[in-house]
Amino acid sequence: MAVQLSINYDQLVELVEQLSEEQQQALIAQLLADKASQRSLTTAEKIKMLDSAKIHHPVNKSPSIHRSDWYDDDGR
């Protein structure tokens, strides 16, 4: 059973801002997916959907160019 609450836009924005970054991205993806099922997405909406799926973590160091560092072997 769903509860129907009347929440104005400003209250909704405050609630969404309390979510973690991951939860906000999941919410954006869910909203865009719901819209996509109702109609075709615009190019801007498709880009937002792709951006919401990205992981926003910096790379700590440059990857090694040596195969043995990646696979723990000598390449044979």
What features would you highlight for this structure?
76 residues, 4 helices, mainly alpha, 55% helix
Q: Would you give an account of this structure?
A:
By secondary structure, this protein is mostly helical. It has a domain at 19-52. Helices cover 55% and strands 0% of the residues. The chain contains 4 helices and no strands. The chain has helices at 9-17, 21-38, 43-52, 67-71. Helix 2 runs antiparallel to helix 3. The chain is elongated. The chain starts with 8 loop residues before the first helix and ends in a 5-residue tail after the last helix.
Describe the structure concisely for a colleague:
The protein has a domain at 19-52. α2 packs antiparallel against α3. The longest helix has 18 residues, at 21-38.
Give me the strand/helix succession: HHHH
Radius of gyration: 20 Å
Mean pLDDT: 82
From the spread of the alpha carbons, the general shape counts as elongated
Topology (SSEs and partners):
Elements (H helix, E strand, L loop, with lengths): L8 H9 L3 H18 L4 H10 L14 H5 L5
Helix pairs in contact: 2-3
